[in-house]
Amino acid sequence: MKIALTGGGTLGHVIPCLSVMDTLKEIDPNINFFYIGSEKENEKALVTNRGIKYYSVKTGKLRRYFSLKNFVDCFLIIIGFFQSYRILRKERPDVLFSKGGFVSVPPVIAAHLLKIRCITHESDRSMGLANKINSRFCECVCLGFKNENLKPPKYVYTGNPIRRDIKNLKRVKGERKLILVLGGSQGAVEINELIYKNLDKLLEYADVYHQAGRFLDKTIKREGYYQTEFIGSEFKDVLARATLVISRSGANALSELISVHIPMYLIPLSLNASRGDQIENSKWAESNACAIVMKDKEAFLKDICSIITNDELLAKLEEAAKRLDDRDGSMEICKVILRKE
Protein backbone atom coordinates (compact mmCIF):
# COMPACT_ATOMS: atom_id res chain seq x y z
CA MET A 1 0.00 0.00 0.00
CA LYS A 2 1.19 3.52 -0.80
CA ILE A 3 -0.04 6.62 1.03
CA ALA A 4 0.53 10.25 0.06
CA LEU A 5 0.71 12.81 2.86
CA THR A 6 0.17 16.53 2.43
CA GLY A 7 -0.15 19.61 4.61
CA GLY A 8 1.95 22.63 5.40
CA GLY A 9 2.37 26.33 5.80
CA THR A 10 3.61 25.84 9.35
CA LEU A 11 5.11 22.88 11.20
CA GLY A 12 1.76 22.64 12.98
CA HIS A 13 0.44 20.94 9.84
CA VAL A 14 3.48 18.74 9.18
CA ILE A 15 4.07 17.25 12.65
CA PRO A 16 0.54 15.75 12.98
CA CYS A 17 0.93 14.19 9.52
CA LEU A 18 4.09 12.46 10.69
CA SER A 19 2.29 11.31 13.85
CA VAL A 20 -0.32 9.59 11.69
CA MET A 21 2.45 8.09 9.56
CA ASP A 22 4.19 6.64 12.63
CA THR A 23 0.96 4.97 13.75
CA LEU A 24 0.33 3.57 10.27
CA LYS A 25 3.84 2.08 10.33
CA GLU A 26 3.04 0.40 13.65
CA ILE A 27 -0.04 -1.16 12.04
CA ASP A 28 1.70 -2.16 8.80
CA PRO A 29 5.48 -1.67 8.40
CA ASN A 30 5.17 -2.37 4.66
CA ILE A 31 3.20 0.80 3.85
CA ASN A 32 5.13 3.21 1.62
CA PHE A 33 4.85 6.97 2.04
CA PHE A 34 5.72 10.16 0.21
CA TYR A 35 4.98 13.78 1.09
CA ILE A 36 3.75 16.71 -0.99
CA GLY A 37 4.54 19.95 0.81
CA SER A 38 5.62 23.54 0.55
CA GLU A 39 9.02 24.86 -0.45
CA LYS A 40 9.86 25.84 3.14
CA GLU A 41 13.16 24.26 4.13
CA ASN A 42 12.19 23.58 7.76
CA GLU A 43 9.13 21.60 6.66
CA LYS A 44 11.09 19.69 4.04
CA ALA A 45 13.88 18.88 6.51
CA LEU A 46 11.44 17.56 9.11
CA VAL A 47 10.08 15.05 6.59
CA THR A 48 13.27 14.05 4.76
CA ASN A 49 15.08 13.49 8.07
CA ARG A 50 12.57 10.68 8.60
CA GLY A 51 13.63 9.08 5.32
CA ILE A 52 10.43 10.05 3.48
CA LYS A 53 10.46 11.20 -0.15
CA TYR A 54 9.43 14.87 -0.30
CA TYR A 55 7.98 16.75 -3.26
CA SER A 56 7.86 20.55 -3.08
CA VAL A 57 5.05 22.34 -4.91
CA LYS A 58 4.17 25.97 -5.46
CA THR A 59 1.29 27.34 -3.47
CA GLY A 60 -0.32 30.59 -2.40
CA LYS A 61 -1.91 31.74 0.81
CA LEU A 62 -5.69 31.59 1.02
CA ARG A 63 -6.98 34.94 2.28
CA ARG A 64 -10.52 35.88 3.29
CA TYR A 65 -10.02 39.53 2.37
CA PHE A 66 -9.10 41.54 -0.73
CA SER A 67 -5.40 41.84 -1.42
CA LEU A 68 -3.37 42.31 -4.59
CA LYS A 69 -1.33 39.31 -3.42
CA ASN A 70 -4.38 37.14 -4.05
CA PHE A 71 -3.87 37.46 -7.81
CA VAL A 72 -0.28 36.23 -7.58
CA ASP A 73 -1.21 33.49 -5.13
CA CYS A 74 -4.03 32.22 -7.37
CA PHE A 75 -1.44 31.80 -10.13
CA LEU A 76 0.86 29.90 -7.74
CA ILE A 77 -2.00 27.62 -6.65
CA ILE A 78 -2.69 26.76 -10.31
CA ILE A 79 1.00 25.90 -10.81
CA GLY A 80 0.86 23.82 -7.62
CA PHE A 81 -2.15 21.94 -8.95
CA PHE A 82 -0.35 20.87 -12.15
CA GLN A 83 2.76 19.94 -10.16
CA SER A 84 0.63 17.86 -7.78
CA TYR A 85 -1.22 16.21 -10.66
CA ARG A 86 2.06 15.08 -12.26
CA ILE A 87 3.42 13.79 -8.93
CA LEU A 88 0.28 11.84 -8.08
CA ARG A 89 -0.09 10.42 -11.59
CA LYS A 90 3.50 9.19 -11.33
CA GLU A 91 3.28 7.79 -7.77
CA ARG A 92 -0.34 6.51 -7.91
CA PRO A 93 -0.96 6.26 -4.14
CA ASP A 94 -3.92 4.32 -2.78
CA VAL A 95 -4.88 7.16 -0.43
CA LEU A 96 -4.00 10.83 0.04
CA PHE A 97 -4.17 12.08 3.62
CA SER A 98 -4.27 15.85 4.10
CA LYS A 99 -3.61 17.78 7.29
CA GLY A 100 -4.84 21.04 5.82
CA GLY A 101 -3.00 24.31 5.37
CA PHE A 102 -2.89 26.20 2.10
CA VAL A 103 -0.34 23.83 0.50
CA SER A 104 -2.80 20.91 0.75
CA VAL A 105 -5.45 22.30 -1.62
CA PRO A 106 -3.71 21.61 -4.98
CA PRO A 107 -2.82 17.97 -4.09
CA VAL A 108 -6.34 17.25 -2.81
CA ILE A 109 -8.01 18.58 -5.97
CA ALA A 110 -5.50 16.75 -8.17
CA ALA A 111 -6.04 13.48 -6.27
CA HIS A 112 -9.80 13.82 -6.63
CA LEU A 113 -9.49 14.22 -10.42
CA LEU A 114 -7.24 11.13 -10.51
CA LYS A 115 -9.87 9.20 -8.50
CA ILE A 116 -7.50 8.70 -5.55
CA ARG A 117 -9.24 8.39 -2.17
CA CYS A 118 -8.84 11.63 -0.22
CA ILE A 119 -9.15 12.10 3.52
CA THR A 120 -8.53 15.37 5.33
CA HIS A 121 -8.26 16.25 9.01
CA GLU A 122 -9.36 19.45 10.77
CA SER A 123 -7.70 20.08 14.12
CA ASP A 124 -9.55 23.18 15.26
CA ARG A 125 -13.03 23.79 16.65
CA SER A 126 -13.90 25.68 13.45
CA MET A 127 -12.86 24.60 9.97
CA GLY A 128 -10.16 26.57 8.18
CA LEU A 129 -10.59 27.83 4.63
CA ALA A 130 -8.25 25.20 3.14
CA ASN A 131 -10.24 22.36 4.68
CA LYS A 132 -13.54 23.94 3.67
CA ILE A 133 -12.29 23.65 0.09
CA ASN A 134 -10.72 20.22 0.63
CA SER A 135 -13.90 18.81 2.17
CA ARG A 136 -15.68 19.11 -1.20
CA PHE A 137 -13.18 16.70 -2.74
CA CYS A 138 -12.62 14.31 0.18
CA GLU A 139 -14.38 11.07 1.00
CA CYS A 140 -14.11 11.82 4.71
CA VAL A 141 -13.24 14.72 7.01
CA CYS A 142 -11.75 13.69 10.36
CA LEU A 143 -12.52 16.12 13.18
CA GLY A 144 -10.27 16.98 16.11
CA PHE A 145 -13.25 18.12 18.21
CA LYS A 146 -16.83 16.92 18.44
CA ASN A 147 -19.23 18.90 16.28
CA GLU A 148 -22.89 17.93 16.48
CA ASN A 149 -23.65 19.83 13.25
CA LEU A 150 -21.28 17.70 11.15
CA LYS A 151 -22.62 14.17 10.72
CA PRO A 152 -21.16 10.78 9.68
CA PRO A 153 -20.24 9.21 7.36
CA LYS A 154 -18.73 12.31 5.72
CA TYR A 155 -17.52 13.71 9.06
CA VAL A 156 -15.95 11.51 11.74
CA TYR A 157 -14.83 12.61 15.21
CA THR A 158 -11.36 11.10 15.61
CA GLY A 159 -9.63 13.54 17.92
CA ASN A 160 -6.29 15.08 17.01
CA PRO A 161 -3.17 13.08 16.16
CA ILE A 162 -0.65 12.90 18.99
CA ARG A 163 3.03 12.08 18.56
CA ARG A 164 3.58 8.53 19.82
CA ASP A 165 6.41 9.47 22.18
CA ILE A 166 4.16 12.17 23.69
CA LYS A 167 1.09 9.94 23.96
CA ASN A 168 3.03 7.38 26.03
CA LEU A 169 4.84 9.97 28.16
CA LYS A 170 5.08 9.50 31.92
CA ARG A 171 5.37 12.70 33.95
CA VAL A 172 8.09 13.10 36.58
CA LYS A 173 8.62 15.60 39.39
CA GLY A 174 11.86 17.52 39.68
CA GLU A 175 13.38 19.23 42.70
CA ARG A 176 11.80 22.53 41.61
CA LYS A 177 8.62 23.24 39.72
CA LEU A 178 9.10 23.96 36.02
CA ILE A 179 7.20 26.40 33.81
CA LEU A 180 7.44 25.42 30.15
CA VAL A 181 6.78 28.27 27.70
CA LEU A 182 5.79 27.35 24.14
CA GLY A 183 5.52 30.02 21.47
CA GLY A 184 4.45 27.74 18.62
CA SER A 185 6.60 26.57 15.70
CA GLN A 186 7.43 30.17 14.76
CA GLY A 187 7.76 31.68 18.23
CA ALA A 188 5.62 34.46 19.65
CA VAL A 189 6.81 38.01 20.32
CA GLU A 190 3.90 38.70 22.69
CA ILE A 191 4.67 35.71 24.91
CA ASN A 192 8.40 36.42 24.85
CA GLU A 193 7.84 39.99 26.03
CA LEU A 194 5.67 38.78 28.92
CA ILE A 195 8.30 36.27 30.00
CA TYR A 196 11.24 38.69 29.73
CA LYS A 197 9.34 41.39 31.63
CA ASN A 198 8.34 39.10 34.50
CA LEU A 199 11.22 36.62 34.48
CA ASP A 200 12.84 37.52 37.81
CA LYS A 201 9.55 37.14 39.68
CA LEU A 202 8.68 33.87 37.93
CA LEU A 203 12.05 32.40 38.88
CA GLU A 204 11.22 32.90 42.55
CA TYR A 205 8.62 30.14 42.20
CA ALA A 206 9.91 27.84 39.45
CA ASP A 207 12.52 27.20 36.79
CA VAL A 208 11.54 28.44 33.32
CA TYR A 209 12.20 26.61 30.04
CA HIS A 210 11.36 28.97 27.17
CA GLN A 211 10.91 28.05 23.51
CA ALA A 212 11.20 31.56 22.10
CA GLY A 213 11.42 30.92 18.35
CA ARG A 214 13.53 33.14 16.13
CA PHE A 215 12.72 36.15 18.33
CA LEU A 216 14.74 34.94 21.33
CA ASP A 217 16.95 37.43 23.18
CA LYS A 218 20.33 35.78 23.78
CA THR A 219 21.42 38.56 26.15
CA ILE A 220 18.98 37.42 28.85
CA LYS A 221 20.57 34.91 31.20
CA ARG A 222 19.44 33.84 34.66
CA GLU A 223 19.99 30.86 36.93
CA GLY A 224 17.07 28.48 36.44
CA TYR A 225 16.18 29.98 33.04
CA TYR A 226 16.83 28.29 29.72
CA GLN A 227 15.69 29.57 26.33
CA THR A 228 15.93 28.00 22.91
CA GLU A 229 14.72 28.80 19.41
CA PHE A 230 13.23 25.36 18.84
CA ILE A 231 12.81 22.34 21.11
CA GLY A 232 13.94 19.21 19.29
CA SER A 233 14.21 15.62 20.48
CA GLU A 234 14.48 16.76 24.11
CA PHE A 235 10.89 18.07 24.02
CA LYS A 236 9.37 14.96 25.59
CA ASP A 237 11.85 15.07 28.49
CA VAL A 238 11.12 18.74 29.19
CA LEU A 239 7.38 18.12 28.88
CA ALA A 240 7.57 15.23 31.35
CA ARG A 241 9.12 17.58 33.91
CA ALA A 242 6.73 20.51 33.37
CA THR A 243 4.43 21.64 36.18
CA LEU A 244 2.65 24.25 34.07
CA VAL A 245 2.74 25.07 30.36
CA ILE A 246 2.25 28.59 29.00
CA SER A 247 1.21 28.24 25.39
CA ARG A 248 -0.72 29.49 22.41
CA SER A 249 -3.96 27.58 21.97
CA GLY A 250 -3.42 25.93 18.63
CA ALA A 251 -5.34 22.67 18.43
CA ASN A 252 -2.26 20.46 18.12
CA ALA A 253 -0.51 21.91 21.17
CA LEU A 254 -3.75 21.82 23.14
CA SER A 255 -4.40 18.17 22.29
CA GLU A 256 -0.87 17.03 23.10
CA LEU A 257 -0.88 18.83 26.45
CA ILE A 258 -4.25 17.30 27.32
CA SER A 259 -2.90 13.84 26.44
CA VAL A 260 -0.11 14.30 29.01
CA HIS A 261 -2.55 15.83 31.56
CA ILE A 262 -0.49 19.00 32.07
CA PRO A 263 -2.06 22.19 33.52
CA MET A 264 -2.16 24.98 30.93
CA TYR A 265 -2.17 28.75 30.82
CA LEU A 266 -3.31 29.75 27.33
CA ILE A 267 -2.59 32.94 25.41
CA PRO A 268 -4.58 32.68 22.15
CA LEU A 269 -3.76 34.63 19.02
CA SER A 270 -6.04 37.63 18.64
CA LEU A 271 -8.47 38.17 15.76
CA ASN A 272 -5.96 40.61 14.29
CA ALA A 273 -3.46 37.78 13.87
CA SER A 274 -5.73 34.82 13.10
CA ARG A 275 -9.21 33.73 12.01
CA GLY A 276 -10.19 33.28 15.65
CA ASP A 277 -9.62 29.53 15.86
CA GLN A 278 -7.32 29.83 18.87
CA ILE A 279 -9.87 31.94 20.73
CA GLU A 280 -12.48 29.23 20.18
CA ASN A 281 -10.04 26.51 21.23
CA SER A 282 -9.13 28.35 24.44
CA LYS A 283 -12.80 28.95 25.32
CA TRP A 284 -13.43 25.23 24.92
CA ALA A 285 -10.45 24.35 27.14
CA GLU A 286 -11.52 26.82 29.82
CA SER A 287 -15.13 25.60 29.74
CA ASN A 288 -13.80 22.08 30.34
CA ALA A 289 -11.70 23.32 33.30
CA CYS A 290 -8.35 22.06 31.97
CA ALA A 291 -6.82 25.50 31.37
CA ILE A 292 -6.71 29.11 32.52
CA VAL A 293 -6.94 31.68 29.71
CA MET A 294 -5.21 35.06 29.84
CA LYS A 295 -7.79 37.85 29.77
CA ASP A 296 -5.44 40.78 30.32
CA LYS A 297 -1.67 41.18 29.88
CA GLU A 298 -1.51 43.17 33.10
CA ALA A 299 -2.85 40.15 34.99
CA PHE A 300 -0.27 37.74 33.52
CA LEU A 301 2.17 37.70 36.44
CA LYS A 302 -0.57 37.49 39.06
CA ASP A 303 -2.24 34.66 37.15
CA ILE A 304 0.92 32.58 36.81
CA CYS A 305 2.02 33.07 40.41
CA SER A 306 -1.43 32.13 41.71
CA ILE A 307 -1.45 28.94 39.60
CA ILE A 308 2.10 27.73 40.18
CA THR A 309 1.81 28.16 43.96
CA ASN A 310 -1.61 26.48 44.23
CA ASP A 311 -1.15 22.69 44.24
CA GLU A 312 -4.89 22.13 44.62
CA LEU A 313 -5.63 24.13 41.47
CA LEU A 314 -2.85 22.35 39.56
CA ALA A 315 -4.36 19.00 40.56
CA LYS A 316 -7.84 20.09 39.39
CA LEU A 317 -6.49 21.20 36.01
CA GLU A 318 -4.67 17.87 35.68
CA GLU A 319 -7.78 15.83 36.52
CA ALA A 320 -9.85 17.77 34.00
CA ALA A 321 -7.30 16.98 31.28
CA LYS A 322 -7.47 13.28 32.18
CA ARG A 323 -11.24 13.32 31.66
CA LEU A 324 -10.82 14.85 28.20
CA ASP A 325 -8.15 12.37 27.13
CA ASP A 326 -10.75 9.95 25.76
CA ARG A 327 -9.21 8.60 22.55
CA ASP A 328 -6.08 7.96 20.52
CA GLY A 329 -6.52 10.45 17.68
CA SER A 330 -3.74 9.03 15.52
CA MET A 331 -5.16 5.51 15.74
CA GLU A 332 -8.71 6.68 14.97
CA ILE A 333 -7.49 8.55 11.89
CA CYS A 334 -5.58 5.46 10.74
CA LYS A 335 -8.77 3.40 10.99
CA VAL A 336 -10.43 5.84 8.58
CA ILE A 337 -7.45 5.81 6.19
CA LEU A 338 -7.30 2.01 6.10
CA ARG A 339 -11.05 1.55 5.93
CA LYS A 340 -12.25 -0.22 2.81
CA GLU A 341 -15.14 1.29 0.89
Automatic annotation (TrEMBL):
User: Which pathway is recorded for this entry?
Assistant: Cell wall biogenesis; peptidoglycan biosynthesis
Under CDD domains, the record lists: GT28_MurG (cd03785)
- Glycosyl transferase family 28 C-terminal domain: from which residue to which, for each copy? 179-309
List locations, semicolon-separated. Cell membrane
- The answer to whether the entry has keyword Methyltransferase is no
Q: Which domain of life is it from?
A: Bacteria
GO BP term (any one): cell wall organization
Q: What class of enzyme is it?
A: transferase
Q: Where is the Glycosyltransferase family 28 N-terminal domain?
A: 3-141
Question: Which residues are listed for UDP-N-acetyl-alpha-D-glucosamine binding in this entry?
Answer: 163, 185, 278
| Record flagged with keyword Secreted | no
Q: How does it sit in the membrane?
A: Peripheral membrane protein
Can you list the GO cellular component terms from the UniProt entry?
Answer: plasma membrane
Catalytically driven reaction(s): di-trans,octa-cis-undecaprenyl diphospho-N-acetyl-alpha-D-muramoyl-L-alanyl-D-glutamyl-meso-2,6-diaminopimeloyl-D-alanyl-D-alanine + UDP-N-acetyl-alpha-D-glucosamine = di-trans,octa-cis-undecaprenyl diphospho-[N-acetyl-alpha-D-glucosaminyl-(1->4)]-N-acetyl-alpha-D-muramoyl-L-alanyl-D-glutamyl-meso-2,6-diaminopimeloyl-D-alanyl-D-alanine + UDP + H(+)
Please state the Enzyme Commission number of this protein: 2.4.1.227
Alphabetically, the GO molecular function entries are: undecaprenyldiphospho-muramoylpentapeptide beta-N-acetylglucosaminyltransferase activity
- What does it do? Cell wall formation. Catalyzes the transfer of a GlcNAc subunit on undecaprenyl-pyrophosphoryl-MurNAc-pentapeptide (lipid intermediate I) to form undecaprenyl-pyrophosphoryl-MurNAc-(pentapeptide)GlcNAc (lipid intermediate II).
Family, as annotated:
Belongs to the glycosyltransferase 28 family. MurG subfamily.
Question: What protein name applies here?
Answer: UDP-N-acetylglucosamine--N-acetylmuramyl-(pentapeptide) pyrophosphoryl-undecaprenol N-acetylglucosamine transferase
Native species of this protein?
Bullifex porci
